[in-house]
Amino acid sequence: MPDNGQAAHFRALEQLYASAPINSLFHSALEVTGAGSARITFEAQEAHFHAAGAIHGTMYFKMLDDAAFYAANSLVSDRFLLTTGFNLHFTKPLRGGKVVAEGRWISGKRRVFIAEAHLVDEDGDEIGRGTGTFMRSHIALSGLDGYRQPR
């Protein structure tokens, strides 16, 4: 069970996610589920299809990167992390529906963090997975408009 400060950080990260202009393009929601873990649920729609009638890889990357990023940033309460690299594996095409991206921190607690994520469709099948590296930036979380902790 997170302490009050940690829980406030988790809720502020969720608000930060919701405030990002890019996220107005997708029906998605972030839940930081604990230290080092995050879940994003989203609706994959026809508007996200490539020419062959399945979800474009940019959606896979965005949701995997975000889930891994927030899992890692849940361990850092003062700085915004930046993605420095991401390996992505497509395991199944997606034609729409509810999708869950689960992110989990793997290692690193000082400057560089490694986290992984996987995507699961509404049938419970894995459709993609990835591993990312994230680095502390000079950007203070407290200076970002979307990051608001309760007083």
From TrEMBL:
InterPro entries: HotDog_dom_sf (IPR029069), PAAI_dom (IPR003736), Thioestr_dom (IPR006683). One of its GO terms (molecular function) is acyl-CoA hydrolase activity. Residues 53-126 form the Thioesterase domain. Pfam families: 4HBT (PF03061). Gene3D superfamilies: Hotdog Thioesterase. SUPFAM superfamilies: Thioesterase/thiol ester dehydrase-isomerase. Keywords: Hydrolase. This is Thioesterase. It comes from Aurantiacibacter marinus.
